[in-house]
Design brief:
- The chain is mainly beta.
- It has a single domain, classed as Jelly Rolls (Sandwich), CATH 2.60.120.
- Helix content is 14%, strand content 47%.
- It contains two helices and 15 strands.
- The strands form two sheets. Strands 1, 3, 4, 6, 11, 12, 13 and 15 form an eight-stranded antiparallel β-sheet that branches. A seven-stranded antiparallel β-sheet has the order 2-5-14-7-8-9-10, with no helix packed on it.
- Helix 1 packs across helix 2.
- Bound molecules: calcium ion (2 copies).
């Protein structure tokens, strides 16, 4: 009889009991979830209306070693598996270059993936990663005007993609997929930044933010279930 290793059983068990679900959602209706940590906080640059978060682009950037962007909204990554992080923006019309809203999968300010909508010469989508402070990205034009849009960052394994939608139903991939890290970023979130140009402040109206992904059991929990299955199999074998 062919023997199946514990490692294979463990992987199969994880696969069987993992499922895809909403792992986090914040509607920003009047307040924010307590799950957020706001790094480099500047309370003067954001407020909550009854239906959305109004977030001004801060005079800073995550690029290279500058790392002076304010108000990084971050949650601890809620899954060891794959995920999508989706933001609905009610309106954002940046008048000046480099004003932008970014959806982030982040380990630290020099190691992250960033899905960007902003003005880069013209209204654009940008998608890139910074590793050890070195940023590389691709850029493509996209102009929603003052209308609402949805921006999504998707992770499968350690491969990330950027998607955009104007109706939340029909999605288009923007820019090139990229590989980053080991597939387990520490944080998920967003930031609105402005490089260093605040001559014409721009605000982003964020309706909601959602993370959907694999519900992956903690290794300890899976090991307990595997142990229980092994004990059950042993008892059945003894009865035979
Ligand atoms: Ca950086
Ligand atoms: Ca809302």
């Amino acid at each position: 009889m062919q023997r199946i290793s514990l490692a294979v059983l463990f992987a199969a068990l994880q696969c069987c009991i993992a499922s895809w679900d909403t792992l986090f959602f914040d509607d920003f209706n009047g307040s924010a979830s307590g799950a957020w940590s706001i790094t480099n906080e500047n309370p003067g640059l954001y407020s909550y209306t009854p239906t959305y978060l109004d977030l001004l682009c801060s005079a800073g950037t995550l690029s290279a070693g500058y790392n002076n962007a304010e108000n990084l909204f971050l949650i601890t990554n809620p899954t060891l598996g794959d995920f999508t992080a989706t933001m609905r923006v009610l309106s954002f019309s940046p008048p000046q270059s480099f004003q932008q809203i970014d959806v982030l999968a982040l380990d630290d300010v020099d190691n992250y993936v960033r899905a960007v909508y902003g003005r880069i010469g013209e209204p654009s989508l940008e998608f890139g990663a910074e590793t050890g402070g070195a940023w590389a990205s691709s850029i493509s034009p996209f102009d929603p005007g003052a209308s609402a849009f949805y921006m999504r960052l998707t992770k499968v394994g350690n491969v990330y993609s950027q998607f955009i939608s104007t109706d939340g139903t029909s999605w288009s991939q923007a820019n090139e997929t990229l590989a980053y890290g080991d597939g387990t970023p520490s944080y998920i979130g967003f930031v609105a930044s402005d490089t260093w140009n605040i001559a014409a402040p721009a605000d982003v109206q964020i309706d909601w933010f959602r993370v959907e992904g694999d519900v992956v059991p903690e290794p300890g929990a899976a090991a307990l279930m595997l142990g229980a299955l092994a004990a059950l199999a042993t008892r059945r074998k003894r009865r035979c």
